[in-house]
Amino acid sequence: MMKLFSKIIYKILKENTLGIIRQNANSSIGKAFRIGNFSSIYLHPSASLKIGSDIHLKNYINFVLGKNAEVILENNVFMNNYCSINAIEKIEIGENTLLGEGVKLYDHNHEYTAEAVEHKKFRSAPIKIGKNCWLGSNVTVLKGVTIGDHCIIGAGCLIYKDVPSGSIVKLNQTLS
Predict the structure, then answer these.
(1) How confident is the model at residue 23 (pLDDT cuts 50, 70, 90)?
(2) How many helices (H) and strands (E) in the chain?
(3) How open is the CA angle 81-13-21, to the nearest 5 degrees?
(4) Within 10 Å of residue 4's Cβ, how many Cβ atoms?
(5) From CA 146, how far away is CA 85, in angstroms rounded?
């Protein structure tokens, strides 16, 4: 009985998530889109979420798109459990890219001075992740970063500046 109840709850949550995307006039979903359990999507009515074909999002994926934000997932993107995309400007993920568990993408940060951190004022710059990339578990990518095509970013890395195409980045070491 409990297993049946869990399947029903999962189906309701999944349909609600897909409904949020479908109701947004600026958004689209390609063929063969799969999303796992307990994922959440917040789309401002002016935001745009474009999902290509053959996209696979595992469990507990979180999307937050603010006013006029744009997120593009090109074809054949895979996002493992607990990934989070937070956009107020633009985030783009190229085709055939893999995101490991817990990857976080933020195209903005809070404005701040020596006296205060602003709660509702932000500085933003787009993020672009190239095609055929692999971001390992718990990678965080910050605003304004471009990761070129064919890059591997090792687990636990904080990416705060551009990564040239064909690079391998590890904690405490960069190899080309």
Answers:
(1) confident
(2) 1, 22
(3) 85
(4) 8
(5) 15
Q: What is the CATH number of the domain that holds 11?
A: 2.160.10.10
Q: How many Å separate Cα 119 from the centre of its chain? A: 22
Q: Do 82 and 101 touch, CB atoms closer than 8 A? A: yes
How many domains are contained in the chain? 1
Q: Which domain holds residue 57?
A: 2-175
56 is catalytic: no
Mean pLDDT, residues 159-169: 97
Catalytic entry in 44, 56, 108, 110: 110
Confidence band, pLDDT 50/70/90 cuts, at residue 3: low
Taken as a whole, the chain contains a residue count of 176
C-alpha to C-alpha distance for 74 and 132, rounded to whole angstroms: 11
The lowest-confidence range among 7-11, 67-71, 123-127 is 7-11
CB 132 within 8 A of CB 149: yes
Q: Which H/E stretch holds residue 137?
A: none
pLDDT at position 34 over 90: no
Residues 83/99, Cβ–Cβ less than 8 Å: yes
91 pLDDT more than 50: yes
Tokens of 115: 């006296």
